[in-house]
Write a structure and sequence with these properties.
The complex is a heterodimer of chains A (581) and B (387). Chain A is an all-alpha fold and 581 residues long. Helix content of chain A is 75%, strand content 0%. The two termini of chain A are 41 Å apart. Helix content of chain B is 23%, strand content 34%. In chain B, a hairpin with a 2-residue loop joins strand 13 and strand 14. In chain B, helix 3 packs parallel to helix 5. The chains are: A mainly alpha (581), B alpha+beta (387).
Chain lengths: 581, 387
């Protein structure tokens, strides 16, 4: 190896770049065009337009937030948000990393349950889960509360309410945390999979106890992943809308995402303060990202390489049944109990904890699925949007991941563009879209088009990650072999790379679809009576008190989601078998 | 450091007709990889011609640039400077801004990992290049079947690659490379993933196939035995440069540098100082005075030099035929049984040579022996011996 004159290299690089641009295939240009459209047209344009048109209101809004009429409420809202986010993130990080460690490093391997854990928030869309929990733990008519009161009634306590009340800060924190666990689990178990267990074995051999090994070796090695999962939890917590929208009103706890929504939906709409708060949210999240970048220096996650390590597992003895039990308990909390609650309420003519088998009816399902215009249209819209968004995003990100190859600056740039939306809270996207797309030249507020665009932006990061992992598992030589066999770029993509990546792309498609169908935040902001979607209608029905219908509808989307996730598991498992054989 | 000279093929005898006949002409190719840690020169002004049905092996250790050179010919990588012609047609020229994509270059390629498409049958894998060339499905499948019969896989047309052994998979890859009849096949370490036995058999089959069909081949390998067995000509590479080009016996018997001598085959190496230069060159080494010829540039009396000779050219003085002038005295340190041959390590604690003999038993360690080596087999290279 020898260093060469850098001046000489850069002298020719410009002409080489020009030559390369001239040779770029139309297909590559098309892909870059789409990426540019998404990042500029759907992120930059709404934000900038909103700022430009609302410039006057922004200053006014800022005044009103700091010294004006809103200044009395805002500090409380921010404090609430901080408490909820911090509490929920802490809860999720503890539960998520403990479960990840148990699955990857102890003999309490969770098997199928371990596979289901990261999917919990997909199997039961959070909005359905929250409604399910509200139905269970409403202080007076909550089914679980009623059951618990019945259990303790022989003691003669004569409780009229409780013992639990979900409409509290604690209820908010626990429910939010519950649905953040999967993200933490996913990040942590991926990090543990990449960490060579021999590092830990070396520690054991050198006389450290399992606990000491975990604290002194394992934990420091996966610290970057821990930081990443905390950040992920915080970002999703800040922008989380469904939980506070359902529980917050009853608890009289306003968090920032719901407060912004209220500012925009109440009459007269206060666009200035809403935009200022949304921007503040964006800035906070970006600062957290920068902070993470600075804290986690490169090269710290050493010894993380290769795959398929097989280390000795930490023996937990009898304790491993407890760990397994906890994992199952988590699934019961996130999926089984809420679904049960929803089912019981949806089969009743009205919500009562005293279940009378004689009055059980399917009327609510008939109402939701066939009779009510709003729900029928919402279901149709959401399904249609889900299909369109998932197909579009997987086609684009799949083509990018497969076509641009594994390495290189082009792919890195594309990845950073598709990763951008994940760093923007959904509330911000909602606010920016409302303000930018309700005026010329793009007056599309109130149409399904605006929802389509918002969903495309919000789910493209999921799509890109799924596509990348599908594409990167294909050896580069398979594509090269096709090129040297005289296949055009497009033909290589169509005949070789796409079929090989298909299982992964299908899994990604399902994930995007499920996210889109269960989306609440942007739906609340951007959907209305002319373009209803499931998330919006669920919230409306909840606020109007049509509880059995809400439960029925929540069950319907849960059923759709869990069926598709089951299909996803089936597809990816089969694909695994094919490549292994 | 080793003193090495840049080897250039262009020179006398390379003009006019010879150039037109070449299947591939590589002219002054350079490529530098820029990483965060700095620049790495993968190709440094490399030139090479490959004849119409010539088998050229690029040989060198990993990181010498041989794979980069191959991938540049394929169009899978782009050089920084230079020209590449295939069949007399310019496919790459940095000056003229030409870079023909791989799918438009007339060649095919066999990869180290076989690179068979797991979702297609063996027959469809092989038919794929023909389908891309616009052949009808049936005709393409038929030709694919023929190519597969040629490599001995006529019974596996409907199988999937995952159902075949490594050797069979590489045969399919070979069939896919010959089926379109491009006349040029690039091989990127195609046998290195296979067992030794399979490797040997495929090597023979590959040669048979080449003489039957008559394609030109550029074959990358780090295995010198493979290179010697396969090549019409070998190009030995070292950090981005071609050190020497020649037939197998030229490379083995007349290496032009210490690097080539050391990399191809095994070599005994003794440092020394040149005593006299005449018809032969005489060098004083720690194990005795040695006589031989210059391998590379001649140097004057008194200069440091390395004396190199191969273990199998050495003999013991108790064997018949040992009458040369080069006699080295030493003690047997140990004898290694290698099956077909026996390796004896002779010398002292700090300076050893190896003598390889076929037949004969092990020698008792500690025995004093005299080793001799014919003058014609000893090559002397100038270079710093660190004394």
């Amino acid at each position: 190896m020898s260093a060469i004159d850098h001046g000489a290299v850069s002298g020719t690089s410009l002409s080489r770049l020009r030559a390369r641009l001239q040779r770029t295939s139309p297909f590559t240009l098309l892909l870059w065009g789409v990426l540019l459209f998404i990042s500029v047209g759907l992120i930059l344009y709404p934000l900038v337009t909103a700022l430009v048109y609302e410039a006057g209101n922004v200053a006014e809004g800022f005044m009103s937030l700091t010294t004006g009429e809103l200044s009395r409420r805002v500090p409380e809202v921010i404090l609430n948000t901080v408490i909820v986010v911090a509490g929920a993130t802490a809860l999720a990080v503890v539960i998520g990393s403990a479960l990840a460690w148990a699955n990857e490093r102890s003999d309490a391997s969770l098997g199928f349950v371990g596979q289901l854990l990261p999917l919990a928030a997909l199997i039961v869309p959070p909005i359905a889960g929250v409604i399910g929990w509200a139905v269970l733990l409403d202080p007076r008519v909550g089914l679980l509360n009623y059951f618990l009161r019945w259990l303790v009634s022989p003691l003669g306590l004569g409780l009229r309410e409780g013992p639990f009340n979900i409409y509290t800060m604690t209820g908010l924190i626990v429910t939010t945390g519950l649905y953040t666990v999967p993200y933490v689990y996913l990040v942590m178990s991926a990090a543990l999979q990449r960490l060579d267990p021999s590092v830990e074995e070396a520690s054991r051999v050198n006389g450290a106890s399992p606990l000491r090994t975990m604290l002194r070796v394992t934990f420091p090695a996966i610290k970057p992943a821990l930081a990443a999962s905390i950040l992920l939890g915080a970002i999703s917590g800040i922008s989380l809308f469904s939980v506070p929208a359902v529980l917050g009103a009853g608890a009289r706890v306003d968090v920032i995402s719901v407060y912004i929504y209220r500012l925009l939906s109440d009459y007269p709409a206060q666009t200035g303060p809403a935009l200022v708060l949304a921007l503040g949210m964006l800035i906070v999240v970006q600062m957290m990202l920068i902070g993470q970048h600075l804290l986690v220096k490169k090269g710290q996650n050493a010894a993380i390489s290769g795959r398929g390590f097989r280390g000795t597992k930490v023996r937990l003895g009898g304790f491993r049944h407890v760990v397994r039990g906890l994992a199952v308990f988590y699934l019961v909390l996130t999926a089984v109990l809420p679904i049960l609650g929803l089912l019981l309420v949806s089969l009743q003519p009205f919500w009562t904890p005293a279940i009378n088998v004689a009055t059980l009816t399917l009327d609510n399902f008939r109402f939701v699925l066939f009779e009510n215009n709003q729900t029928v249209e919402a279901l149709r819209n959401s399904m249609g949007l889900g299909v369109a968004v998932a197909t579009f995003n997987m086609l684009v990100t799949g083509a990018i991941a497969l076509h641009l190859g594994k390495h290189g600056a082009a792919r890195r740039f594309a990845d950073s563009l598709t990763g951008l939306p994940a760093t923007i809270p959904h509330t911000v996207i909602g606010v920016a879209f409302i303000l930018a797309f309700s005026r010329e030249p793009l007056r599309i507020y109130g149409t399904t088009a605006i929802l389509l665009l918002a969903y495309v932006v919000m789910t493209i990061t999921y799509a890109a990650r799924a596509a990348a992992s599908a594409a990167d598992s294909i050896s580069a030589e398979l594509g090269e072999a096709s090129r040297v066999s005289k296949a055009s770029d497009f033909r290589t993509l169509w005949r070789i790379l796409l079929p090989l990546a298909l299982p992964g792309l299908v899994a990604g498609w399902i994930m995007v679809f499920v996210h889109t169908v269960g989306e609440v935040t942007a739906s609340a902001f951007l959907s209305g009576t002319h373009n209803p979607v499931i998330g919006r209608v669920l919230l409306d029905f909840w606020n109007f008190g049509n509880f059995p219908q809400v439960a029925a509808m929540a069950l319907v989307i849960t059923l759709i989601s869990s069926t598709l996730v089951g299909l996803m598991l089936f597809v990816t498992r089969r694909a695994h078998k094919v490549t292994v054989s | 450091m080793i003193e090495t000279r840049r080897f250039t093929v262009s020179g006398q005898g390379e003009t006019g007709p010879a150039r037109a006949e070449a299947r591939v002409s590589i002219r002054n190719l350079s490529k530098t990889y820029r990483t965060r840690r700095g620049a790495h020169v993968a190709l440094d002004n490399v030139s090479l011609d490959i004849g119409a049905s010539e088998f050229v092996v690029l040989l060198g250790p990993s990181g010498c640039g041989k794979t980069t050179l191959l991938r540049c010919v394929a169009g899978l990588e782009e050089p920084d400077a230079g020209e590449i012609l295939i069949n007399g047609q310019l496919v790459f020229s940095s000056e003229k801004g030409i870079s023909v994509p791989p799918e438009k270059r007339p060649f095919n390629m066999v990869f180290q990992s076989y690179a068979l498409w797991p979702h297609m049958t063996v027959q469809d894998n092989v038919a794929y290049p023909l389908r891309n060339a616009g052949r009808a499905v049936r005709a393409a499948r038929e030709s694919a079947g023929e190519a597969l019969r040629l490599v001995g896989l006529g019974d596996y047309l409907a199988a999937y690659p995952g159902q075949l052994s490594g050797g069979q998979q590489q045969r399919v890859a070979l069939a896919r490379a010959i089926v379109s009849g491009d006349g040029l096949i690039l091989f990127d370490e195609p046998l290195s993933n296979l067992d030794a036995k399979v490797r040997e058999r495929l090597r023979l089959e590959l040669l048979g196939l080449q003489s039957r069909i008559g394609f030109a081949a550029i074959y990358v390998t780090h295995d010198q035995v493979e290179a010697l067995a396969l090549a019409d000509r070998i190009a030995v590479m070292d950090v981005g440069r071609i050190e020497q080009v020649g037939t197998s016996d030229e490379i083995y018997d007349a290496p032009r540098s210490r690097y080539v001598s050391d990399f191809v085959g095994s070599a005994n190496e003794l440092p020394g100082r040149i005593v006299s230069v005449g018809e032969t060159v005489v060098v004083d080494t720690p194990m005795g005075r040695m006589e031989g010829g210059f391998g590379g540039e001649p140097v004057a009396v008194g200069a440091d030099a390395w004396v190199m000779f191969r273990p199998e050219h050495c003999q013991f003085d108790f064997e018949p035929g040992c009458d040369g002038e080069n006699r080295l005295d030493g003690e047997v340190l140990r004898s290694l049984y290698l099956g077909a041959s026996m390796q004896h390590v002779v010398g002292s604690e700090d300076r050893q040579i190896v003598v390889t003999r076929t037949g004969g038993g092990p020698l008792e360690p500690g025995t004093d022996v005299t080793v001799c080596c014919p003058v014609g087999r000893v090559r002397i290279f100038p270079g710093d011996t660190g004394r």
